[in-house]
Amino acid sequence: MKPVNVGICGLGTVGSGTFNVLNRNNATIDRRTGREVRITHVGARRDHPDCDLSGVRVSRDIFDVVRDPDVHIVVELIGGTDTALELVLAAIAEGKHVVTANKALIAQHGNEIFKAAEDKGVTVAFEASVAGGIPIIKALREGLVANEIDWLAGIINGTGNFILTEMQQKGRLFDDVLKEAQELGYAEADPTFDVEGIDAAHKLTILASIAYGVPLQFESVYTEGISLVTPEDVRYAEELGYRIKHLGIARRGTEGVEMRVHPTLVPESRLLANVNGVLNAVLVHGDAVGSTLYYGPGAGAEATASSVIADIVDVAREVDSRHAVPHLGNHTWAEGLDVVPMASVETSYYLRMQVTDEVGVMARIANILSDSGINIEAIIQKEPEPGDDTVPLILLTQRVLEREMNAAIDELEGQTAVIGKVTRIRVEQLGGE
Ligand SMILES: NC(=O)C1=CN([C@@H]2O[C@H](COP(=O)(O)OP(=O)(O)OC[C@H]3O[C@@H](n4cnc5c(N)ncnc54)[C@H](O)[C@@H]3O)[C@@H](O)[C@H]2O)C=CC1
Ligand SMILES: N[C@@H](CC=O)C(=O)O
Ligand code: NA
């Protein structure tokens, strides 16, 4: 069979990893693909110190890769959503298959991209866009195809999990750990995407679309990052038997699909609570299979390259025939499935507030909550520090609708005995793991 020629656009962390792994494991990859897969053209602003580009055509203009008539598969690894969109649409227009690791691009422009790909009869593959090296897209679209997905919950940002873990285990400072994540190549070009939950929301958009057949709709994901999680919350959560993890959650209920990304208290005995560092994990609950867990590196050059190359091989196997698995754009969207507004989501809550150290304050707070139909599951009340007349009060509640909790928090913050804002972190038991 004819060799399949690959053009790589962008030679940064993932581009260099892909170049090196594909060359290093070339013989094995060819044998498994059943044909020769070779990188013939690289588009990069500059060479990469770890990549030997001899024998490969190199262009400073990445659009030269798209225009190269010998390239069958264009691999987009430049990141961002402007030039990347232009590049991917140009490659599709040239009738080339595309592989990308770019979750921002898929989450925000996927509907347009997949429509163009469908019209042209080419594939756009994106395994590396969610959970780095973990083959979660393949698991959901192929391995779990028989299941109604009840819910999925995942740690899907490596940088955020690395920061939370280092804060939890070593008491390190947020900014210091973020800097290390950037040096290790884990963080996005704009690291606020990692710490404010935007990157996780991009990934959840993709997972929810596959799991529920809803169009990609990044703007409908409720998004909170980890930047407001404090060392005290980490400590109090531990006292209550929980760990704080930044989760992306999609769940199908009677009203539609919940899509949300936020810090979450997870019981410490759960596997997800013990996923640390740059590792990611996605727990998927299917009606037939029950719970399955996918665990592995969520970022990094060669781990991500592993997924990029898996897509290249999938596409290469099908280059002269019909693609075996319909790409995302070939879905007929499920009918009548709405996205549930956050106010209608029900969870338990961890609440932390600073209150004046007087008799009766505790009872007043308990009354406000019970008048709102909120039951308290556990309480921690600390002794005041010497010279301080306020104390932290930490509560764990039973499940309640977000809209009722919003109203109760407004009322609590209106009390003179409650100083400043009430911190709220949602709690998930993740039963059936
Ligand atoms: N770093 C990681 O662990 C992971 C990254 N990703 C995604 O992979 C993509 C690439 O990420 P990284 O490799 O980390 O980024 P990076 O910043 O290390 O690499 C991007 C490279 O593309 C080049 N580039 C950008 N625009 C270009 C242009 N117009 N012409 C030529 N070269 C251009 C840059 O000079 C840089 O070398 C992003 O979409 C990212 O979200 C996905 C999974 C994991
Ligand atoms: N910045 C991302 C990279 C992988 O998608 C992360 O930290 O998870
Ligand atoms: Na993946």
Automatic annotation (TrEMBL):
Listed GO biological process terms: methionine biosynthetic process; threonine biosynthetic process
Residues spanning the signal sequence: none
Reactions this protein catalyses: L-homoserine + NAD(+) = L-aspartate 4-semialdehyde + NADH + H(+)
PANTHER family: HOMOSERINE DEHYDROGENASE (PTHR43331:SF1)
Binding-site residues for NADPH, renumbered to this chain: 103
Protein name (record): Homoserine dehydrogenase
UniProt-annotated catalytic positions: 203 (proton donor)
Family: Belongs to the homoserine dehydrogenase family.
UniProt: NADP(+) binding residues: 9-16
NCBIfam families according to UniProt: PRK06349.1
Cited SUPFAM superfamilies: ACT-like (SSF55021), Glyceraldehyde-3-phosphate dehydrogenase-like, C-terminal domain (SSF55347), NAD(P)-binding Rossmann-fold domains (SSF51735)
Domain annotation ACT: ranges: 350-427
Enzyme Commission identifier(s): 1.1.1.3
Record keywords: Amino-acid biosynthesis, Methionine biosynthesis, NADP, Oxidoreductase, Threonine biosynthesis
Pathway linked to the protein: Amino-acid biosynthesis; L-methionine biosynthesis via de novo pathway; L-homoserine from L-aspartate: step 3/3; Amino-acid biosynthesis; L-threonine biosynthesis; L-threonine from L-aspartate: step 3/5
Binding site for L-homoserine: 188
GO MF, any single term: NADP binding
Protein biosynthesis is among the record's keywords: no
